[in-house]
């Protein structure tokens, strides 16, 4: 088996078939997106740091899954109860992911799956994360963040 070669965020965006741009104001109507952007703005959600649940790339926002979705549900007990009732035998965070998928602002991997692997290469170590990739163009409020050069996408 040939090892996967890491792609930059720009290369991955070039492969992205759906380049839909949605106004950030419209996205903020989604409870999760609103919570995410508010948390980033107030620094309650860490970005581009070791163990951060969010990483900004050249053309993507990488959400570490399931951590970021579980964090939202843990901080929003009422929403969690609603999702738990609807989830049945499924994991609760998967319903939240389905809502994000419906917005059509995420990128699927080449295998058609919604979760993508990325490699993080630091000075002393290398690790892999499973992330949900969102189109950065949809989030102009995050333009003040530099792209994290340590992350390579594996589509």
From TrEMBL:
Source superkingdom: Bacteria
Sequence ranges assigned to domain Putative conjugal transfer nickase/helicase TraI C-terminal in this UniProt record: 30-149
Protein name, per record: Putative conjugal transfer nickase/helicase TraI C-terminal domain-containing protein
Protein species of origin: Marinobacter salarius
């Amino acid at each position: 088996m040939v090892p996967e070669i890491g792609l930059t965020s720009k290369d991955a965006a070039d492969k992205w078939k759906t380049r839909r741009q949605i106004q950030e104001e419209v996205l903020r109507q989604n409870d999760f997106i609103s919570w995410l952007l508010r948390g980033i703005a107030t620094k309650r959600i860490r970005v581009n740091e070791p163990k951060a649940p969010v990483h900004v790339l050249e053309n993507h926002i990488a959400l570490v899954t399931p951590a970021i979705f579980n964090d939202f549900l843990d901080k929003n007990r009422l929403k969690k109860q609603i999702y738990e009732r609807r989830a049945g035998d499924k994991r609760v965070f998967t319903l939240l992911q389905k809502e994000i998928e419906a917005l059509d602002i995420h990128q699927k991997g080449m295998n058609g799956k919604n979760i993508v692997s990325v490699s993080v290469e630091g000075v002393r170590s290398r690790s892999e994360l499973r992330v949900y990739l969102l189109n950065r163009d949809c989030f102009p409020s995050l333009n003040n963040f530099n792209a994290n050069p340590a992350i390579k996408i594996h589509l």
